Amino acid sequence: MGVVAKIAPSMLSSDFANLASEANQMLRLGADWLHMDIMDGHFVPNLTIGAPVIESLRKHTTAYLDCHLMVTNPLDYVDPMGKAGASGFTFHVEVSKENWQELVQKIKAKGMRPGVALKPGTPIEEVYPLIEGENPVEMVLVMTVEPGFGGQKFMSEMMEKVRVLRKKYPSLDIEVDGGLGPSTIDVAASAGANCIVAGSSVFGASEPGQVISLLRKSVEEAQQNN
């Protein structure tokens, strides 16, 4: 299939008072990426972290910081996130229909990898132009819960979006986020998701490393079977 499994523990479920040690523990246990949820209290009701926290964490790790920006004005965040050391910058299609080309260009110019996310209620067709454009995004994040809060129930009906994307774009990185864990990974992996964000299912587990391994194994097995 040409895409690699990436397991990204969601640091929103970590102990923010011990962010560096929690991040490094996840990496020791086999995580590929660290998923960082940036929320502005406007696009989504919750308010989480911003560039200063990314900058602080970057001093303690060389890991890929997979940043999901649930913000109304993603353009305002490109410079600060680039300077802070973000690796990936995933913005929402719902707020960037007019300026996504400029956004992608600026994200790449700052050395970050551009991705686009869509809420459960947004049709998958809305991201096609961003994948097929002259300067395309490099990942699509299919939200499997309403963005804004951790710990929600996985929406299995979103897997149709993943299936459609995977069929249309065999080498695209497709990320899923929301309610992923041992009981939901197989359906996501068989639909074609290769980048897996998992929060409470990893941080709430007695053996987080085993959960990370299980998630990876499911993605790799699904790829072999397809």
Structure description:
- With 226 residues, this protein is an alpha/beta fold.
- Helices cover 36% and strands 19% of the residues.
- It is built from nine helices and eight strands.
- The protein has helices at 19-28, 51-58, 75-84, 100-109, 128-132, 159-168, 185-191, 200-203, 208-225, and strands spanning 6-9, 33-39, 64-70, 88-92, 113-118, 139-143, 173-177, 195-198.
- The chain has an eight-stranded parallel beta sheet with strand order 1-8-7-6-5-4-3-2.
- Strand 3 (64-70), helix 3 (75-84) and strand 4 form a beta-alpha-beta unit.
- Helix 2 (51-58) runs parallel beside helix 3 (75-84) and helix 7 packs parallel to helix 9.
- It is globular.
- The model has no long low-confidence stretch (mean pLDDT 96).
Q: Name the poorly predicted regions.
A: none
The biggest sheet amounts to: 8 strands, parallel
Mind telling me the C-alpha Rg? 16 Å
Strand order, largest beta sheet:
1-8-7-6-5-4-3-2
Instruction: Count every beta strand, where a strand is a DSSP E run of 2 or more residues.
Output: 8
- Listing every helix as H and every strand as E from the N terminus to the C terminus, the arrangement reads EHEHEHEHEHEHEHEHH
The helicity comes to: 25-40%
**Helical segment tally?**
9
Proportion of beta-strand residues: 15-25%
Structural class: alpha/beta
Oligomer state equals single chain
